[in-house]
Design brief:
Helices cover 51% and strands 20% of the residues. It is an alpha+beta fold. It folds into 2 domains: 62 residues; 111 residues. It has a 5-stranded antiparallel sheet. A hairpin with a 2-residue loop joins strand 4 and strand 5.
Length: 201
């Protein structure tokens, strides 16, 4: 997203979060009005509404800011590729691993580790409580797999057109938001694949 639109986009996010907070708090007040005669009930319901609004609003703010922050943060790696700072694809793979495990680690996506394997590279593994060797193509259903009940694995194939350029496996722990895999797919499709192709002849 263009930096020139940052003020507008930030305002939209803040307005969305504030609007949610007002609506949710208003609903809490309405419940008190409908089901309780004692006006003192307004106080705990009002406080609860405010606290929940803050928590959910913080979460929405993080998720909604991804489309704005991702281009800015990833541009640093794109510049390094364009300027020839990487001697080979292996070095770029290492930076991508660090970038993804940091940037995409937020509330609702508790990343524990991952495996990154680009074309003609040695796999980069960020250790966690999962045996990556036990994960095969048959382990995944629609590129997703549950492991030991509390872990989830997301398999992201990397390709440009019909050319396969490798894959990424991301491991998360606990609850993971439903759109997390779609976010990873968009990252592969709109940011990563063409950068890898710069190294593959």
């Amino acid at each position: 997203m263009l930096r020139s639109f940052s003020t507008i986009y930030t305002f939209i996010i803040q307005a969305t979060v504030a609007g949610f907070g007002l609506v949710f708090t208003g609903l809490c007040m309405l419940l008190v009005y409908l089901f309780f005669d004692n006006v003192l009930w307004y106080i705990p319901f009002f406080i609860a509404g405010i606290l929940i609004s803050i928590l959910v609003g913080s979460y929405l703010s993080v998720v909604l800011s991804i489309p704005f922050k991702l281009p800015q943060q990833f541009d640093k790696l794109k510049n390094k590729v364009a300027l020839g700072h990487y001697s080979n694809l292996q070095a770029f793979q290492e930076d991508i691993a660090d970038f993804m495990l940091t940037f995409f680690n937020f509330i609702g996506a508790d990343i524990e580790g991952g495996k990154f394997h680009f074309t003609d590279c040695k796999a980069t593994i960020k250790p966690c409580n999962v045996d990556f060797d036990a994960l095969t193509e048959t382990s995944f259903r629609n590129n997703k797999a549950k492991i030991n009940g509390n872990y989830k694995a997301f398999h992201v194939p990397i390709h440009l057109g019909s050319e396969k350029l490798g894959y990424i496996i991301i491991i998360t722990k606990g609850y993971t938001i439903p759109i997390f895999y779609a976010i990873l797919q968009d990252f592969e499709n709109y940011y990563l694949d063409d950068q890898i192709k710069c190294f593959v002849k």
